[in-house]
């Protein structure tokens, strides 16, 4: 593990397709469709970014503009990955990042899901050497596409040890079914655990606390993406406090998805996570949509959320402990690097 001494940050929840440079996305859009209705990147981003009142549905709607522009295009995927790693280093000062994406959302007629994974792996390997940071991949199963769950895990198993470290379930968690998650996804997570593939899961963002229970106890997720609504169920919250589950908190996106009301920032669940000693990290989620990389995100946490600096420092230590690293030696090396 080679780490640039000037880079000290860590991020665990960053969507690759939500971290494309606006200028790059617009440029590719215009190449594909010279008659694109937006005349410039500012018009394009105004179209792309959700408007108040916010909701997860509006947030995810943005990706209906993004994905058709880059899906199935090896050159576009390579470029956006290389630029993402550069931005992680230069804009965010990250020495370690876990990027996530759904192979079945970025594939196309000439680029199958495995080729997508290989393309991104090659790009992160190339860029990581240049900037001196460690980048790992998490492959997402889309909640609305349970039929792809097994295939996603098979890819994670196949490329485990080559840069792929885990799986996730993403998509519209407001569609969470109280009767239980699909059997295909349950089986896929069990297969991942059998092969020691790490597991995180989006839950409790716009779904109820019970979705967090399902993620932890049915899917056996080690980390929860967002999970804010767990604070509204005292018995479950008490139960979760006694586990080692880690919460990937994304403060700005929690507002843009409607998970947290912008007038209630002093009641953001991250405050309770910090006060109660839960394991949590601070992340950007989708800088393309929120307009914030981690430096701006941490400023938002101190200036708008009112998180003390101690909470931000603690979040980095939690992140190191929860990172999907291959060995404890790597974890010790990463911790030493961040603290010195």
Automatic annotation (TrEMBL):
Keywords: Hydrolase, Metal-binding, Zinc. Transmembrane segments: none annotated. Residues 11-334 form the Adenosine deaminase domain. The keyword Aminoacyl-tRNA synthetase does not apply. GO terms for molecular function: adenosine deaminase activity; metal ion binding. Its EC number is 3.5.4.4. It comes from the Eukaryota. It is a peripheral membrane protein. Its cofactor is Zn(2+). PROSITE patterns: A_DEAMINASE. Belongs to the metallo-dependent hydrolases superfamily. Adenosine and AMP deaminases family. PANTHER family: ADENOSINE DEAMINASE. This is Adenosine deaminase. It comes from Paragonimus skrjabini miyazakii.
